[in-house]
Amino acid sequence: MKPTIHTLESAPTASKPLLEESKKTYGMLPNLHGALAGSPELLTAYKALHGWFESTSLTEEERTVVWQTINVEHACHYCVPAHTAIAHMRKVDPAVTDALRDGTPLPTERLEVLRSLTLELVRNRGHVSKTQLEAFQAAGYTEQNLLEVVLGLAQKTISNYVNHLTDTPVDAPFQKFQW
């Protein structure tokens, strides 16, 4: 069984207002939101997590590192191009987005430490070595930042997994960043 990518017309009744809000916010209905709409609760959770992660103390660049590190590690065909486009719109240094997509070193040690910690969280299902935590703290990150990375991981796990289940088509505005 492959989940449906819903439109405003086909979505469950409880998802329709959420999809209308997405269309108003983004000027289109992202296919990811259509995929999530099969469960109004999941769409609601995803949108809430996204909003909360956007309001964390992490900078735009740091949020991009967290998102794209997870997207690349999960090999998400939809989220890597989507977050590349989002990073470009938000004026994140292209050297950062290119390094994240290509798996090459990031331009600063601080961002590299953030990527390393995020990867260890993903790969070890939340277990992080004392050495990694010390490096994270030495780079100037806080306990709050550590917990915020977990929030970003929760959001990306939902989107990445759903995109794998639905083989979500990449939206037209993101296609030039196919990965």
- Our Rg estimate from Cα atoms comes to 16 Å
Oligomeric description of these chains: single chain
Q: Approximately how much beta-strand content do the residues carry?
A: under 5%
- The SSE order reads HHHHHHHHH
Biggest beta sheet attributes: none
Distance between the termini: 26 Å
- Average predicted local confidence, pLDDT: 97
What's the shape? globular
Stretches where pLDDT falls below 50 for ≥5 residues? none
Structural class by sheet pairing and helices = mainly alpha
Work out the helix count.
Answer: 9
Which short descriptors sum up this protein?
179 residues; mainly alpha; 9 helices; globular
SSE topology:
Blueprint: H1 16-26, H2 31-36, H3 40-54, H4 60-73, H5 79-89, H6 94-102, H7 109-123, H8 130-138, H9 143-166
Helix pairs in contact: 3-9, 4-5, 4-6, 4-7, 4-9, 7-8
How would you sum up this structure, described in words?
With about 180 residues, this protein is mainly alpha-helical. Helices cover about 65% and strands about 0% of the residues. The protein is built from 9 helices and no strands. α3 (about 40-55) runs antiparallel to α9 (about 145-165) and α4 (about 60-75) packs antiparallel against α5.
Give a short synopsis of this structure.
The protein is mainly alpha-helical. 64% of the residues lie in helices and 0% in strands. The model has no long low-confidence stretch (mean pLDDT 97).
